[in-house]
Amino acid sequence: MDRVAAVAVIDTQGRVTGWSEGARLLTGHPAEEVVGRPDADLLAGEPPVEARTAGAEAWYGTVTLRHRDGHRFDLAVTVCPVDRGDGRSAGYAVTAEPPGTALAAQAFEQASMSMSVFDLQQRYLRVNDAACKVLGVPEVALTGRFFPDTVADIEENRGFLRHLREVAETGTPVRYENFAVAPALDREHFWSLEMWPLHDASGTRTAVAIAAYDSTEQYWARRRLALLNEAATHIGTTLDVVRTAEELIEVLVPHYADFASVDLLDWVLGADEPPMLPADDVELHRVACKSTGPIAPGVAVRVGETQIYRPPAPPALALREGRAVLAHAGEPGFRAWLADRDERAPEGRPFRRGVHSMIAAPLRARGTTLGVVVCVRLAHPEDYGPDDAVFTEELASRAAVCIDNARRFARERTTALALQHSLLPSGPPGQVALDVAHRYLPCRSQAGIGGDWFDVIPLSGGRVGLVVGDVVGHGISSSATMGRLRTAVRTLADVDLPPDELLTHLDDLVTHLAAENGREEVAEFGATCVYAVYDPVSRRLALASAGHPAPLLVLPGEQAEFVPVTAGQPLGIGGLPFEATELDLPEGSVVALFTDGLVAHRDGDGGADDELRRAVGASADSLDALADGVLKSVLPDQPGDDVALLLVRTRALGADRVATWEVPAHPAQVAVVRQAAGRQLAAWGLEETAFVTELVVSELVTNAIRYGEPPIQLRLIRDRALICEVSDGSSTSPHLRRAQVYDEGGRGLLLVAQLTQRWGSRQTVAGKTIWAEQPLPDAREAAYWKEQPGFAASSENGEPCGST
């Protein structure tokens, strides 16, 4: 509401002759009640003596009036004599400002914030005490002067002048914030400024008023909070220790520090458990640093180098005391730190001359000290303060948790990788049925090492078992489960179970493992697997799948196609049988078995299968080159899951290496087949093995005639070992027993077991097969394999190598 001045005119006899509207509002008396009455009727007491004796001089003071409603109030008035023009007094004019006007003036003068008033031409009219302190000059030195003449010609002051003119010209208030150096202050301050126009009683714009609040502390508090928020999203984006330290540095420089570094204890970068922090000097590794200027000439410790902080340097105290330590130029700790830097890198002294403040905070997570972060200010004019110590501790604590998470992940990954490598085959076993190449790539994602595995298992009769599997989940538990399943597959394969039966037993095992571990959902403990058996004699491949991707098959001269195998349910689901698929393969066929990590990055992309077919079907000099080409063509730079790839190229054992006889079920045939076996060994140049082989043939054929059922068949196979197989129509498996002294029989299998390298039996569709292997003479075996194309003998023992 507009404030109207109160005016009264009093003649020389003390009677009221004039009464303004403002006087009525002030006292409640209308003009008709007052004009003509003595002024004493309005007073609540005697007027001051100074007012009665002022005469021809103006007087200013306080009088006590009585309001129309009866209450008393004090009023500051100005009494001015009125001259008729002939030197005689015509009376007095009494004026009074509304109550509070004097208080408003006092509030302006005594305000804690800087306040000033400019005319419309940007000249000073009024400046309060706070503004004078900021400007460093009294009000009298500024009144009437043009603003640009009183300040430096810098962008901050030019902006202030632009806003001042804008308010004067448009009458629109302006509010903005600005960094500026006040003449009487030692550093930049952050100011919140508000400008608004002033109007007289007629509404005419007369001046511009300004209030400037120093919000530097609030500004830095907001900046620290903003940095914490930024740190929450910027730090810890990867589970890599070094990258996490770099992210911390990126948050600090240049917004909070002109130079920052992160140094970690040695064990943090390895796979060791945290040791006790030694009481003497501690060696740290520089993992990240950054500067607003050129860092190379001035940094004392570069990334990858080590250093030792010694008390009273702030980093050493921060490590020992577990708190942030401040240091400013001239303090003992600061001097010790600076001297150590200068001694280590004298060429950087010019770059350190302006350093005036530093702060060191320990990187602590879960009660363990990991290292220290150091922040240094050079271009920033403000020293670090207590609030900065609290902020740096909070930021370092958050970063330390991320670093510790990365360290724990790296440690678990290293352990899981070592465990997995110890469980996976280091190389293909000795066999001649297949050329083999394999690749295993552990993923580098945050999920950790998975449970992918593969295996090549030599079986009886020169056959080879192939397995590729994938355990659900990641980490050490998945690797451990993978190891158990791989051992189970090898055990089941050793008893020559067909692929579908082997997966059925493996499915039961996974279900039992889940029950033992108290898993409510078996699927969480499940796995997928494909198992195949290749027979180089019949050139037949039999395979079955448990929820696993179908293998790819490349026949000689043709394109790669997926094997039409029934996928089946993953292991651990149970309830449904697995179906086996059998294929006759020509020699030189390539089969690719793999885990879903090879194509998982393109989940749902119909072109992924075509791309994989093209990669597997591409021509290559060797299987190893083909395996490398498949990974390069199909995988991204950073696979999101483990990848296992097993490539095999089939070989065949021709008629020159296999001899078969049908044996009539009569004891007289034992001598006949023994002689036939001897002749075959002589044809192969293996006369040295004839005695043992003929003895084994006699025992096995005799047992088949005596205890088995027709048809009976004898087969000799010259593989990397000499294999003797006797098949019959009975499904009863033989077993070893120890014969008594006077027993006439019972020693045959025991004798076979003693004379051969290994023996066993396997069930067939028509009955069973009992087999026995014996090693070949080294010299002849090496010479034989040297003549075979595509095979290279080992330089150490002459054993054939079954892979390219």
Description:
The protein has a six-stranded antiparallel beta sheet, sandwiched between helices. It is 31% helix and 28% strand. It is rod-shaped, with a radius of gyration of 50 Å. The chain has 804 residues and is an alpha+beta fold. Mean pLDDT is 83; it is low at 520-524, 739-745 and 790-804. The longest helix has 38 residues, at 386-423. α13 (476-494) runs antiparallel to α14 and α15 (607-617) runs antiparallel to α16 (623-634).
Q: How far is the N terminus from the C terminus?
A: 100 Å
Radius of gyration: 50 Å
Q: Helix share of residues?
A: 25-40%
Low-pLDDT residue intervals, each spanning 5 or more residues: 520-524, 739-745, 790-804
Specify the biggest β-sheet.
6 strands, antiparallel
Helix/strand/pairing category: alpha+beta
Q: Mean pLDDT, rounded to whole units?
A: 83
How much of the sequence lies in strands comes to 25-35%
Overall number of strands: 31
Task: Please state how the strands of the largest beta sheet are arranged side by side.
Answer: 13-12-11-16-15-14
| Overall 3D shape | rod-shaped
Number of helices: 20
Oligomer: single chain
